[in-house]
Structures are given as C-alpha cells and as structure tokens.
Amino acid sequence: MSDIAIVERAQRFLGVLRHCQVLGMTVHSADANGLILRLPYSAQIIGNPETGVIHGGAITTLMDTTCGISTVCVLPDFEVCPTLDLRIDYMHPAEPHKDIYGFAECYRVTHNVIFTRGYAYQDDPAQPIAHVVGTFMRMGKPIANLAGKEGGQ
C-alpha cells in the first residue's frame, strides 16, 4: 500500500471516532513504518487546573487510538481490531500549552493478534512522555460495507 493510501486510511478511520473529533486529534503522518497522531493542547483536557498539565486519560486515549489506527494501516484490507490489552508507562508529565504527538508501529502481525508499540512526546521523540505497548484482536473483514470503500471489497 502506498504512503498516500495509508494516510487516507488513517484519516478515514480517525474521522469516524467521535471522541477523537471532540479532542481535535489529527493524523500528523503515516507510512509503512508507523503512524503519528497529534492531540492539540486545550482547556478541555487539563487534569490539574493549577499547573495546566494534561490529564493522563487524554494521553491514554491518544495512545490507544494511535496504536489502534496503526493496525488498520499495516493490514492489506480493512479489519476491525479492538484493543485486547494496553500498557502505558508514564515517564514524566506533559508540559502545559504544548501539543502531544503519539507514535505507534505494529511490530508483529499474527492470524489472531496484532502487537503494537509506541510513545507519546511533545517537542522531541527522544524525550518521551510515555511508552505504550498494545495488543489488538483481529476480527476479520467487515461483512457489509461498514468501513467505507474497503470494507465491502
């Protein structure tokens, strides 16, 4: 699949996730090596009003979504792949008033499970806010045309 097709698939998938729309998440980049989503800083996701630090739940949502969308970017055809397990190790709090980026890649694809890993960062990927590993269950191709053009083919 071309890099353009991967970006389009990622954008299409992200576009149907209402909670991600409310949070303002966007696809920053996507290719065969992985996916980067952007979570913009906003008052809605502040966890500590005194410091302006982003709530850990918003970062968890970013990383679950990034890992999940990375699965649909690595498969030849669209498949529904719900989260089986997600582990996040927080390294340090995010700095207030800065966007957060989430990177994820699929490092192993089996018949039933896809294994992902990644990290959240702000300015420098070498200074991650958090590391993540996730597993996603392969459910197979949708029966009807539920996933847009690719689902019914």
Automatic annotation (TrEMBL):
Keywords: Hydrolase. NCBIfam families: unchar_dom_1 (TIGR00369). It comes from Zestomonas carbonaria. CDD domains: PaaI_thioesterase. The keyword Hydrolase applies. This is Thioesterase domain-containing protein. GO terms for cellular component: cytosol. GO terms for molecular function: 1,4-dihydroxy-2-naphthoyl-CoA thioesterase activity. It holds the Pfam family 4HBT. Residues 52-127 form the Thioesterase domain.
